[in-house]
Structures are given as C-alpha cells and as structure tokens.
Amino acid sequence: MSLLxxxxxxxxxxxxxxxxxxxxxxxxxxxxxxxQNEQKLFREEGIFNYSTMLMxxxxxxxxxxxxxxxxALDINNISLRKAAVYWRVTEEKQRExxxxxxxxxxxxxxxxxxxxxxxxxxxxxxxxxxxxxTCDYLTFANGxxxxxxxxxxxxGKCPFDPFQRYSSLMVGSDLYSATSINFLGSxxxxxxxxxxxxxxEFKSSWLSExxxxxxxxxxxxxxxxDGDDDKVYMFFSENAMEYDFYxxxxxxxxxxxxxxxxxxxxxxxxxxxxxxxxxxxxxFPEPSLPPIVQDVFLLxxxxxxxxxxxxxxxPQSSLSQVSAVCAYSMSAIRDIFNxxxxxxxxxxxxxxxxxxxxxxxxxxxxxxxxxxxxxxxMGMNRSLDLPDKTLQFIRDRPLMDEAVRPLTGGPLLVKNGxxxxxxxxxxxxxxDGQRYNVMFIGTENGYIQKAVNxxxxxxxxxxxQLYENPEPxxxxxxxxxxxxxxxxxxxxxxQMPVSNCSRYETCVDCILARDPYCxxxxxxxxCSSVNSxxxxxxxxxxxxxxxxxxxxPQPDPVAAVDFALIPGNNIQLSCQLHSNLxxxxxxxSEQTLHSNHKYYIYSGGLLILSASKSDAGLYTCDSVExxxxxxYNRTVAVYHLQLYSGPAVGDGxxxx
Amino acid sequence: MSLLxxxxxxxxxxxxxxxxxxxxxxxxxxxxxxxQNEQKLFREEGIFNYSTMLMxxxxxxxxxxxxxxxxALDINNISLRKAAVYWRVTEEKQRExxxxxxxxxxxxxxxxxxxxxxxxxxxxxxxxxxxxxTCDYLTFANGxxxxxxxxxxxxGKCPFDPFQRYSSLMVGSDLYSATSINFLGSxxxxxxxxxxxxxxEFKSSWLSExxxxxxxxxxxxxxxxDGDDDKVYMFFSENAMEYDFYxxxxxxxxxxxxxxxxxxxxxxxxxxxxxxxxxxxxxFPEPSLPPIVQDVFLLxxxxxxxxxxxxxxxPQSSLSQVSAVCAYSMSAIRDIFNxxxxxxxxxxxxxxxxxxxxxxxxxxxxxxxxxxxxxxxMGMNRSLDLPDKTLQFIRDRPLMDEAVRPLTGGPLLVKNGxxxxxxxxxxxxxxDGQRYNVMFIGTENGYIQKAVNxxxxxxxxxxxQLYENPEPxxxxxxxxxxxxxxxxxxxxxxQMPVSNCSRYETCVDCILARDPYCxxxxxxxxCSSVNSxxxxxxxxxxxxxxxxxxxxPQPDPVAAVDFALIPGNNIQLSCQLHSNLxxxxxxxSEQTLHSNHKYYIYSGGLLILSASKSDAGLYTCDSVExxxxxxYNRTVAVYHLQLYSGPAVGDGxxxx
Lengths: 656, 656
Fold this sequence. Notes:
Two copies of one chain form a homodimer.
Chain A: H1 2-18, E1 31-33, E2 40-42, E3 52-56, E4 61-66, E5 69-74, E6 81-86, H2 91-99, E7 112-117, E8 122-127, E9 134-141, E10 144-147, E11 152-153, E12 167-171, E13 174-180, E14 188-193, E15 198-199, E16 211-218, E17 231-239, E18 250-258, E19 276-279, E20 292-299, E21 308-314, E22 322-329, H3 330-339, E23 343-348, E24 352-357, H4 373-377, H5 388-396, E25 413-416, E26 420-429, E27 435-443, E28 447-454, E29 457-465, E30 475-479, E31 484-488, E32 493-497, H6 507-513, E33 518-521, E34 526-529, E35 540-541, E36 560-565, E37 571-574, E38 582-588, E39 591-592, E40 599-602, E41 605-608, E42 617-627, E43 630-643
Parallel strand pairs in A: 1-29, 36-43
Antiparallel strand pairs in A: 2-32, 3-4, 4-5, 5-6, 7-8, 8-9, 9-10, 9-11, 12-13, 13-14, 14-15, 16-17, 17-18, 18-19, 20-21, 21-22, 22-25, 23-24, 26-27, 27-28, 28-29, 30-31, 31-32, 33-34, 33-35, 37-41, 38-39, 38-42, 40-41, 42-43
C-alpha cells in the first residue's frame, strides 16, 4: 500500500489547495503542447530583454531590439542571425544615471524600445540610454546593421524608464509616441514628432498616471464621403476621474487623434485639438474593479469600418487571477467619438468634482472632431481655424460620456490561472469558405493560448509552451503571410508556426482538434494545413463548429496489451488521453471502475492495489469527450491481465 | 521508476494549477488537525439547518434551533439530547407558500431563526413558518421542552426567507431585530418590538438592500459621567450610497440606536431618532472592492470602552478567495457617532446625488445623539421632546462622514483559500499574567482556524477539521467558562474544546505550538491546560511570543531504524513533520539531499529510486522551522540502510 499512501499524501495536500476555487466556469485549453525540441529560438549570452520587434518581410528579416543590442534575424528562422549591432551606454551616462539614484546594472543601461521603418533600408530606433532617451537611424544593407550615430534627443519619443509600458507608431515620417516626458515619469504625454510637433495638454483630465499599451493607425480618409481625416487610436489605462471610490481606481481607455491636427491658434496652441477618450468596458461576470487593458491587436479589414480591436485585460487586483479578452468594433468606437455625448466636470460643495453627462449646448464645429467637408464649408480648413469656444470645450472635456461596449456584449474569453499578457489575431480562411479569427494569446508563464470563437462558444484549441522556464511573454508579432508567430521575453525570442497539423495523427484527432488551419486529407491520410492543400484536393474534411467525426473511418480496434498479474503486487496501467476536455473511463469486464480502496484512477492511468487472482481479465481505458453537447467516446488502451506463474520478481513490470 | 512517474504525473498536473497563485503572503496554520474520532456531534435523521443556538449555562443546556425542531442538549456533551420539541408547518401554510411560488420542500418549511432568553425557564422563539414568520414561547422545565402555542405574528422579528441573513437581540423583554418585513424581502427594517415599537424609516439612505449579520448590546449608561444611554450596535453590508461606480458596490457598516429612544413627536414618529451608521474599513493590502462583513464578535471588557468588535470579511467578488479579520475598538466607533462629521447628499445637475461631508451648522441637540444630561438640562427628557430641526437633520443624514478604521490600522489576519464564515474570540490568561485574545474562526469547508496575534505577528496555532464533508459553518458559539466551542452547519452541530494540549507530546512540541491555553509541566512531563494546573505548580513553562525551546530538556536522540536495501528496488523512507510551517531536510552521510533523478522528496518522506549498494548508510530527516526569525532544527527520523542479502522478495518493505 506504500504507493497509494504516497500518492494520497501528495494529492491530499495539493487537493486541499487546488480545489478551494471553482475552475469549471473558465475556458480550459483542449490540448497542452509541451516545449518542442526543434524550437526556433534566438538569444545571445549576456543580452536580455528581447522586447521590441519590427517585421521587415520586404528585407526578409525580423529586427529584434533588446538591451543594448539590435539584431536582424532570418524571418523564416529567427535562430539564424544575419546581423547585429550593439548600442551600449557610455560610462559617463551610466554614472550620471547612478548618481540620480538608479541601479547601474539594471536601469542605467540602454534598452531598445522603439523600432520603426523609415524607408527601404532605414529604421528609426530609440533606447532608454541610462534614463536619457536617445534616438538614432539604423540601416540594414549588404547584410550589415549600422547605427548612424546621430544621437537625437529621445525625450517624449521613448520612455526614460526601461520598465514603463509605452507605445509608439510611425506614420509616414511622423513619430507618434505615448510615454512620460520627464525623468520622474510623472509627466505623461501623447506626442507627434513632426515638422509641427503636437502634444497633449498637461492636465489630469487628459491623462492621469496612464499606462500606454498600444497605438495603431486607421486610414479613415480613404473613400470617405464626408472628407474625414485619418486617425491614430491608442489604448491605455489611467486613474478614473468619473468614479468616486474609497481608493484610486484605474480604468481602461481608448483615445484618438486626427492625423491632420495642427493644434489651435490661441487656445491649445501646439496641443491636440482632437484628443478624445472613452472608457473601454470589459465587464467580468462577477463584480470587480474594472479590468486593465494589457495589449491590443487591430484585426484590419479592407473596409476599415469592419476592423476589430482585440484587447487583453487582467485584474486590477492581484487577489484575482482571471484574465479576459474583449473585442471592439471600429465603428462602435468611431460612433462614440463622432456622435456621443461628452462628460463634464461639475463642482460639488467647493472641494469636490463630479463628472456627469454634459447636457448643455455643444459648440459648432463639434469639439474634438477632425476637419471634414462640413467644417471646410464653414471656411475652416485647418484646426488652427477652429473657434475658441470649440477648443475651450474640448480642452476641459476630453472624456466621452459613454463607454465602448464589447462587440459581443461581454468578454470573448475568460481564463483563470496564469495571466494573459499579449495578443495577436489571424483571420483564417477555412474549407467552408468562411473566415475564422484565431487568437494567439501570450501568458505570464510563457505559453501561447490558441483560441477561436465558434458560434458564441469559446474554444481554446491548444496551449503551447514556448519557454522552458515560466517567463512572461512581453511581445508578440504575427506574420500572417508566413504563417509564423514571434514572441519575445526577458531571456529570448521564439518563433512558432500558427499551426502544426501533424500533431494530430488520426482523422478523429484531426477533426476533434477543430483547428481552422487543419483538415483531414483522405488521399494522404494526414492532418494537413489547409494552405498546403492542392486546389484539386477534394477528399478533405473539416468540422469546426460541430467537431463531427462521423465522416472519419471507423478507427481500428485497439490491440490488447498482455500484462502479467503477480498476486500481491500493485499494478499500474497507463492511459494518456488526447484532450484536457476528455474524462477517463476505465472498464473491467464491462464494469466501470471508480477510485476506491482497490483502484486509484489518476490522469496518467489506473493503479490496481495489491492485485489478486480475481483481477485477471480485460481492462479498457476510454476517453469521453463532450463537444457541443454531444459525447464522443473512444478506446485509448486495452490491457489483458493474466496470472503470472514464473519466478518471483522485484517491482512489477509497467507498460507504457 | 513507476512510482516516480505516477507521482510526477499527479503532481505535475496539480502543480500547474496550484502554483500559479502566490500563497506565501497569507497566513498558513501551523498544524492541521484532521477530524477526531471521539468528536461530540449532534444531528437527527431528517432534520437539517442547525443554525440557531442559545447557551443556557444556568440550565446546563445548549438550545439548538434547526428546521422544524428545537433541542435542549447537554452543554457539557451536546451529543446527549435532554429534550426536543418539533414545530412543523401546517399543510395549509405550506400550500399557501407554494402557491406564492416558493419551493414546498425547501422554502415552505419552518426554520427556527430566533431563540432568546426571557426568564429562568422561558425562551422566545421564532421560525420562518413557510414564509409566514411566527413566534412563540418555549419553556424548559422538568427535563421537557414545551411550546406554548401562542403563534404570535413574527413579521419584522424573523425573516420570511429561511436563507436570508438576519440578526436579533433580546434586551430585557424588548426584541431588537434587523430583517425584511415583507414577503419579497424588499423592505428592510431595524425593529424594536416593545410597548413602544420603533423602526427605521423606509428610505434607501437608511438601509439599501442590507444583509444583517450581527447585533449586540453595550451598557454605556453604566457609570456614565454625562448620563449617557445604553445602546444596541448592529453590523451589516448594504449598497454604498457614498460611491459612484460603474456597478453597484456593497459596503460594510456598523450602526447603532439608543435603548431609550422613543421616536419623535411629529417628525420620525415611531421611528428611531438615534439611528446612525458608519462605514467599516478593512482594507486589504491589494486594491479591491470593499470586503463584506460576514460575522462579528464583541469581546467584552469590564470597562465597556475597552471592548473590541472582531469582524470577519470576505471578498465582494467570487474572483477572489481572500478573507480577513479586522478588529474595531468600541471607543473608536463611539467617537465617530458622538463627535464625527455627517455626510450629506448634494444634488448634482438635477439627476445625480453625491454624498459629501456636511460642513454647515449642526443643530443642537446633536442629531442622532442619545438623551444625556446636557440635553436634559435643556429641558428635553425623551426623544419625543427633540426639536424638529434635529430630527429632520438625522432623518436625511444617517451616515457618518468618516469610516471606522481597524484597531491595528489594517486586517489582523489575511487568509487565502476556503472563505471564513464565523468568529468567536476568547480572552485567555497565560502564565505570564497577560491576556491573549484567541480567535476561533469557522470556514466554509468545515474547519476552525485558531489564531492569535503576538506582537503584530499573526499566528494560526491550528486548523481543526469539524465536519467530515466540507460544509460551511453557519453558527459559532463560545462558552468561555466551560472552555467549549459549539458550531452548527446544515447537517449537524459539533462541540470542541478550546484546546487539546495533549496533542503536543514533548516539551518542544508544546512550546512550539505557542498555544496560550497550554504549558509544559515538568512535574508531570505533560503539555497541560493552564487552567488545570494546580496553583502550586511551579515547574511550568510557556513561551508564547518567542517560541523559545531552550528551557526544554534536550530531546533523546532518535533511534535509527534498520532498513533493508535491495539493489534495484525503490525505497521509501517516511518522515512526517509536526508543523505545516516547517521545511523538511534529508541528510545522507551529512550531505543534504535534493529532489533529482535519484531522490524524490515529498511531504511524506523520501523516495530513493532504483537503489544501489552505494546507497547504504545513515539517512536523517530533519524538521527546520522558523519562528520569529530564528530557525529551530530537530531530527524527526533516522534510518540505517543496510544491504539485504536474503532471498528475492516482491514489493520492497516500507516502514512507518
């Protein structure tokens, strides 16, 4: 009985901890894929913080920014380094930084945080440079990476603090950046560095201790009937001004500015006249403090109105371990900014302020709007022409009254356990001619969750381990054309394909995986990538929404493995299920077994304790998986236990 | 290797779940005491919901109210039933209740919720009576329990809904109750049923969807220099009115009324003129929604000003599993009610209201104050004499501006895992002449946490399992004089002693337990209850704050157990530590062992995999426990592994 007692001691103690919370409400990945041996990994000894990436498919490289190094890696295999350039802090800079109270070996280094394309061969790059942000030009030509050494001022373009969240974007030759503009990190700014530099007003109603996470460009001027302008959207969290609570509360925001903004003439001189923000709602099923946006991905559509922002949220309080993904339609965000009501501060009893819906008259042109045909007809062609009352209004009221609601009313995905950190989304054309949006979500313990929403049901196809040690994924990039995903962390960069259909060896496995990238090909008898199928392939099936395996051939019966029964010994029969969503069922002579004093059923198999003669016979291990309310059973292993009559032996033999 | 693989499969899967959260910040009980065989338990077949208790130490019984039954149990051993009386709903009542949409077999029954002492032999008892609350008189005489059958109206005295939280208190012959007064549970009330019945105003600023959890009496008139009145304090949670958030937020409150209150003459006629409430603060170290008060215990002091309320809080959101205990001094609560500022509602933009600190002039006499000498000197001897402006003020402003802060600034105890449900506190006189307040806290999985605070350090002496199945403890009572604790749940009532010193067998065990009830007696060589020591006992030690074992005799060296080593076998050496706070250390020939391919160290012992000749020798298992920054090592087991040269055997032998 020693094995049982050992198991029960270990389990007993863990169960005590494990099952105090209820995990059943949360999405569980169907398959857990452990670290692969043939992984494409890049890291260099002594270099850390691989957290900035720039995809240059045109040059065949992925540019990777780390601490004091920039690499050009083969985009098809990032473990192949094509070039590298190092940008170290000078001793003087490091000393200065140290004198100001920062840690020499950690903070007073140069962390590459900005990498943008300027033209065919040139990139713009910024680093924290020992709390003295600096930018430079980087060329990749003739297989060489070269820094031009221009040492431009990086204040406002790149954070001082290497660990502060930050976002930036290059539009043409204009750099949009959202960060802190001072050493202490106390002066947040959304800045456009261009011939006509623009920035946010330094007012807590504009930005209050923000954490910027994402920025993207939407070409709304394209085909616009009302002559609208292009816009830059940004996502961040900040202290709520609209709530009144017993402690500070953070909220998530989306904000936008117009590309053509030139600031005001008298009011809002060299400041955005088009900075508008709204709360992002992603309510959990449970009451909680507002969840905090951590990363966003814009899934672009040809018609920009149909583009969708996917956002990852984590709890504001570390008491909770529940993350979520919410999706927002471009048009819902646009409607709130273009047509929504504003919030306005109201003084209460001299010392308090309450933000309520503004119900008074809104000036014309509408505050915060871009210059469009209607405004031009009024004789105003630039934001410089806007009247003071429009500008004063928006200066004091940048917050919209209404929050942006998720596309689906609530979270697309709610997950307990390791927090989600980053997201990218791929739009996949499946055999049925439909597109499915597959989300790849990085976690704080180095996994990727690959998830898809089938008719309101969230399904995590796989969770894939990317790092040997549990380290947070700090950047995630997708090359949809290459079918590759690139992730970065403190200790290295990793590449993985968006799918690995060969993981599924049988037709049933392939169909139950419900992976839109994969289909079962009857001609080759393989689970193959939909992309790789020749157009002539007709004997190919997928069943994404239903997971219906009825078209698969009946699997061959599992051959029984003979197994010796030595009376008095403990016998271990192993059985590994193919899915985390399946339940195991053990049968002995058609009777279903349950854990008790005689049997111990665990995830890896069945233990028969102190076996006796009467235990001889046929044991069957079935996997029972529910898909869409239907149950699918299949036999995974069969053992034939036969009384052993040979000489005495030590430990009982164990198969598998 | 089969054992290791089984262990690692089980552990691996669990660790994945278990160690995603960080449990180290939370208090861990030093000892886990599993269910005892000789437990004193009371339950009757077919009877459920043992949730009301009345201690009658004068009659030698504990009165226990359940669903449709009341028992008189021997207070020294509740498994001995002295009498019982059944109070079932009539078929007609049950039918009526069912017609109104309630579940016949669950809700339409009579749950005893109220049990109070009226005089030497008579109790007042109320039950939900199929959503038609009814009260009666109960006598215990000549070993018989008898209901008088008076069937008094129970509306407002007892809830309609058997599962709604509720609190009541008998003061003389006046019943104070806090519950809902209507079938729907939508009209909350704090009621005094007496010759002059008084109740709360039905206004959401007074009570907004409250959950009443506790009520107690404080005799503040005793020795009062300013002729103050006695008071009834009550604890509950309700919807916050002072916050403005994106969803409803509940807050915890303490409120009080004056015993002598008679209502107002015109304003607040037959309503409390002294109902004041304040927010209870028990801030977790993490940002979160306000935690919710679940139970309170008043640790009374001779000088009522030094009495302390102990309160259990659980999270508002089920996303979190972190409970806390906060303590509040009577005088802090009194100061806020007697001298604090009020909150006042301010209209904002017609449709909003914001509650802010009232800064205007406060009428005299002070609104909400009891009638005291100063007021009497003004010619007002009863609340009926109070002027309208005082009464109108308090009718509209029952909430104090300031929250009551915990005695120690923050929680006394923060615990992750199964939620805390109920609390009682015992003041224990230790050998050093000091009193220590020992908390007994029930949990939702049927355990009692026995905890004490030593110089700002929270220490959970033991967690004791009271129920075989994990069921929530719904009531907890203490008889300090008997040294007994009584707990109730859905399925039964259980009694346990406040301490069981004999659990600790050696001097070192006894001292390290740091239990103020227990001391090591050198004369008897036993860990004994401090109460049971004869006053002449001098050779007795305790070391509560330090856990210093230096006065204990050096323990005898642990005898080595001989153990046969059969090459190729797995060998399991067991070693059970005495404390959850201790780490295990295994040594082999003075080298410390670690888990690797050869050794597997788990909480129950050491596994040597596929042993070989060179593994022969001496193995020592040490317990390493940190107390107050000091480390205490002791050897728990020693094994002498010797090469076995006898005939071949099956499973390896296993000690312990």
